[in-house]
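Handout, section 3.2

Students often ask what a structure token actually looks like in practice. Rather than define it abstractly, here is a full record for ATP citrate lyase citrate-binding domain-containing protein. The first block is the sequence as you would receive it.
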Amino acid sequence: MAKVLEGPGMGLLKKWGLQTPNYVVVSSSEEFDQLAQTNDWLQKSKLVAKAHEALGSRFKLGLVKVGLDLKGTKAAVKEMLGKKVESVTIREVIVSEAIDHTDEYYAAAKSVREGVEIMVANCGGIEVESNWEKVKRILVDIGEEPTDAALSGLVKDAGFSGDTAKKVAEFLKKLFICFDNEDAQYLEINPVVQNSAGDLVALDAVTLLDGDAKFRHKDWTFPFAAEFGRAYTKNEEEVMAVDAKVKGSVKLIEIPGGNIAMLPAGGGASVYYSDAVVARGGKLANYAEYSGDPPDWAVEVLTEKVCSLPGITNIIVGGAIANFTDVKKTFGGIINAFRKAKAEGKMDNVRIWVRRGGPNEKQGLAAMKELQKEGFKIEVFDRTLPLTDIVDMALSK
């Protein structure tokens, strides 16, 4: 699941016919000044400025400013940009027009095992948190769409009536279409408000997408929000870019201060090996995995990033017995990256521990073992060795 920041999330809502306020996302005061000269609404409207980062409780942290004029917004943008909140540095600010309204509502769609749950309440904003029993919901079965009758019944059950009920039902229909077409896992709009013209407007959005579906969406040009309370590193972003292009998967998260680098095959093995390192008192330098039989060049890119981690002393190339991931092919990418790293002086004090099984494992393991002749400190084991024994060996040296 990949979190999307508010700006691109609002862009997806607009794409499917849901109304949002005018907004801009800026990364410098100069950029905001330029946009203010070409967008009349920035000069004429009351404005809202918010830190455009994956942070909770932004209002309490002083990272939401409301009811501003242009001068006040310029000051707010300047104040927020570059501000450090815990481990997050504010790199962007989203500025939107303030929408006059009286009532606030809540709407959401969530992926569940049985299908999609559509939720709505006739209260919104912070009020919904203390009135969760007012949230009404219906379940849409997998592969189905909500009927007009089901949506009408839902909004009436939530306490809406008359023309507003019709508008909310239509809003929920568009929300589901957006959710379904954008491979969303969770889409929450809080609050939904009615403007002076009577139109429903989405003021804020929480958007979680299926990151592995990115190859289906050429217009997903926005970066996903970092999941660990900090911005993604350059290496992480480059691996994510590769991951979006290939069949299979390659993943990387850097963990500063560790010395045990991970290069396991498979999501399950990656967690298993990481847990084994921590349980034995080791310090992880990263989380990584490759799975689903990715091309050798993608695994090579991932390995290059792993080899470049500072201060590493061991690399764990572990994996269970693959069903269809070609061990020889993927090991070819790893070997190429190992040789490149060695030529750059990155492997002088690094020991490599390999354990793997699967299609073409004999050829792949033999190619790994040949690296010993090139001066690599590498130990290679087949499927007969218990999975985490290589962790014991690495930490005992």
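Discussion prompt for tutorial groups: The CA atoms of residues 255 and 356 lie 24 Å apart. How would you have guessed this from the sequence alone?
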